[in-house]
Amino acid sequence: MNTFEIKEEFLLNGEPFKIISGAVHYFRVLPEDWYHSLYNLKALGFNTLETYIPWNVHEQKEEEYNFSGQFDIKRFVQIAEELDLFVILRPSPYICAEWEFGGLPAWLLTYKNMRIRSSDPAFIEKVSRYYKKLLKQITPLQVDQGGPVIMMQLENEYGSYGEDKEYLKMLYELMVQLGVTVPIFTSDGAWKATQEAGTMTDLDILTTGNFGSHSKENFKDLKDFHESKGKKWPLMCMEYWDGWFNRWNDPIIKREAHDLTRDVKEALEIGSLNLYMFHGGTNFGFMNGSSARLRKDLPQVTSYDYDAPLDEQGNPTEKYYALQKMMQEFFPDIKQHSPLLKTSMNIKDIKVTGKVSLLSIVDRIAKKQESKYPKTMEELGQQYGYTLYRSYVEKDSQKEFYRVIDGSDRLQFFFNEEKIATQYQEEIGEKIYASPITGSNQLDVLVENMGRVNYGHKLLADTQQKGIRRGVMSDLHFITDWEQYSLDFSEPLSIDFDKEWEEHSPSFYQYKVEIDAPEDTFINMESFGKGIVLVNGFNIGRFWNEGPTLSLYVPKALFKKGENEIIVFETEGIWSETISLEMEPKFKKMDKEEE
């Protein structure tokens, strides 16, 4: 059994220990690939694994807990232990991580008077109930109980959000009460203001910094803060950013390998670090986050490649080999091994076998809920995906205008099943003109939740409730009597491809392919508009011809030997008779520079 302590240095079994860690998120990598990623971390000579723990995957529905399969955090940590890696866990209620709502479960938004990330008793009660389940999974894995876990995080970058010290103290007491015995830490920007706001040094909680360059300056700021509190703690960068995330309609962000290795070496000369990310992985399903802006939030793409040492697939990049060489020189006695490599497959021109319009089958694939006024996704018991709102209106004049009041994030407006408008955030609320026929007219509004913000001031606001929040107006009055259909793709769909298909309408497209020897691949989506892809029923994520990514990664584990089904749900009416599986990702050339 090992011991781990924080004195003036990190001490493992009483001896100085430099933490050389890499971030791999179990929730962004399928379980079949965990060993591959963690082996490559160990093979580089690193000694520690770090991962966030997102609340929203473990309690997606209130009081329904899931710690199995893709979300088996215990098994993930055990694989790290089998590879002789120590583990840092970050189980705070909020994680950021460019993850949907920063890891907070969207059902919290149904409690409209609750203040999240605060000492509000209503919020603490929800956290406490979840922690009782979560910590039962991870406390037996602590180093002083024979496991590999050496530290756990209290809250994440709280100094960039609030200064509710009572909240931090409540979290600390809750963790200790529920069996956390390893050292607890916080991670914030290295400068004084965020360090001061984001921690409680009177509880002897280690403060760490997050940065990706200027190591000497950032570590000096961190050391100065420690000394101002009378502490002689070891210096650690908990997130040393080796790349960056990407947003739709922005260029891919890259960082040169030689630049990274130079800066990492500088950091290791001073203290310990955790490379964020080591393997980024994929925002499967609807789990991408969004960057908050005043009017128009900027959702992130499905790929979380992050320009990391392992690419989205998990294979070594130029950065990996550059770090390998630097580590050999800096630590001559370090043990390194050749990394594992995954292969990919290429299957061209898979023909479409079925197509059907959403409006032809929505009542067969989604449960109808009725209400006087439209309800938000959360009020409908839905958290992610799309909601179709339907009502019927009578003709009052030859040309009439309609307005969706306070909706999010992106909508398509149909009148008698003809699309007449698309609006996105800053446009929602503008007039939409239609020409009714005599009698009843069918009005449909398809609203897409493109991802809740994961960082910043909007975590407080009701702007993160998705769907239609106020209502739909005809001229100057609100329309009543609505039917609502939730499309979250959480359950297998039975789609009748014999029903009607209309060009230029949101539709499902089916492709079937025989595979003798499944391997990883990338589905080329450059001939499609916007939507999601299901591979044998598994939602691999969003695509959009806005770019910069024009393909979706599919791990080998999602395929089976024999016949496989690929279903594309496409909302813009832009599709292809064929689809292709390719060995490498596809990107769109972007002209504008990253802001």
Automatic annotation (TrEMBL):
Catalytic activities: Hydrolysis of terminal non-reducing beta-D-galactose residues in beta-D-galactosides
Location of the Beta-galactosidase galactose-binding domain: 506-564
Glycoside hydrolase 35 catalytic domain sequence ranges: 9-329
Assigned keywords, A-Z: Glycosidase, Hydrolase
EC number: 3.2.1.23
Domain Beta-galactosidase 1-like first all-beta, residue spans: 374-488
UniProt GO MF annotations: beta-galactosidase activity
Family: Belongs to the glycosyl hydrolase 35 family.
Protein name: Beta-galactosidase
Organism for this UniProt entry: Carnobacterium viridans
